[in-house]
Amino acid sequence: MHPRPSPIAAALYTLRDLEVDVIIMHGPAGCCFRTGRLLEDEGIRVITTAMNENDFIFGASEKLIETIREVEDTFHPKNIGIVGTCASMIIGENMKNDAQEAGIDANIIIVETHGGYESGDNTAGAIQALKAANAAGLITEEEVERQSLMLQKATELEKSRGMAKGTYIKPNYGDNKVKVAKEIIESLESDKKVTIVLNAKKETSYLFADIMTIDWTKYYPNNSPIYISNTDEEIGLPYIKHHAKTVNETISKKSDYITGGLDEYPVTGIKAEEVLNELNSDLTIVLGVPHAVDVTKVPGKTIAVTDGPRLVEPLKQMGFDYVVTELDAHSKTLGAKSIVESEFAQTIRGLLE
């Protein structure tokens, strides 16, 4: 029932992860406007063919061919992504034929996607982009299979525990950050075992990992938190590996346990559960995608830190004792190359000083 990111937006973000130079959206100028503008902050040029009502009836092949050639002349790109929209896909535009007719030297990745897939899942667009990248020779079939599985798992997670469960969920902005921050500080002061779990999605790790940049040993030299993170630097596309490396180099100490890669967040929560069961901590903080961790299998008190106001109630229903929201984590971290300030981490810093 809730508005969800469309397959078109997912395709755009996946092309970003593939580090294309220019993306052409074959559709109206306003389609996925916000996503396109945000991707400009990543250094990617996002262009539109600006289809209009006349094009919806008679087609817009010439517009796409002209746009491809103009992109070649203006930017001299190595890789171009062309993404379909509802308008171009419903009328059956042949983007592959148009790309061939344009006759340019750049490598072109054509993603035939739109917002009305029967499943309604945004991940369908990402999978289409991965398959197109494989067809263009950018990634292996094995990588397509691995990432497609992760995306399917992500969809299952949202439908079973997240805001895509089907019923209306009223936005909720979570528990008071000062109150929850005091719970962490009091636990550490009482020599209780505290574990921080980073289970974040791609670049959002830059914000959620901010709490892990706090030098806990300065305040609690004999009782600093244990770190668990999904920051394996050997998993994923180069763009994602870079994020993991940057996070690992910036947090205040090396993670005690690595659960997987930043694009494996739907399943790394399961590995985190296993570790948490062994640790038997008094307090556990799960950052990023906390609903990937079955909190019923986690001993002690628990805190979830999420970016979704509509995830607060589901997380409470799962059994988390406290839920904290970090608003606009996606927009704050899009284009980021280093740690981004978290409101919750700043609240903790303020109480520690």
CATH architecture of the largest domain: 3-Layer(aba) Sandwich
Nearest-integer average pLDDT: 93
CATH fold call of the largest domain: Rossmann fold
Compute the number of structural domains.
2
Strands ordered across the widest β-sheet: 7-6-5-8-9-10
Q: Any low-confidence stretches, pLDDT <50, length ≥5?
A: none
- What is the terminal-to-terminal distance? 44 Å
- DSSP E strands, number: 10
Biggest sheet overview:
6 strands, parallel
CATH class descriptor of the largest domain: Alpha Beta
- Percent strand equals 5-15%
Secondary-structure-derived class = alpha/beta
Specify the helix fraction band: 40-55%
What count of helical segments does DSSP give? Answer: 16
Instruction: Supply Rg.
Output: 22 Å
Shape: elongated
> H/E element string?
HEHEHHEHHEHHHEHHEHEHEEHEHH
What does this structure look like?
By secondary structure, the chain is of the alpha/beta class. The chain has 2 domains: 154 residues, Nitrogenase molybdenum iron protein domain (Rossmann fold, 3-Layer(aba) Sandwich); 176 residues, Rossmann fold, CATH 3.40.50. Helix content is 44%, strand content 14%. The protein is built from 16 helices and 10 strands. The protein has a 6-stranded parallel beta sheet with strand order 7-6-5-8-9-10, with helices on both faces. Helix 1 packs across helix 7 and helix 7 packs antiparallel against helix 8. The N and C termini lie far apart (44 Å). The model has no long low-confidence stretch (mean pLDDT 93).
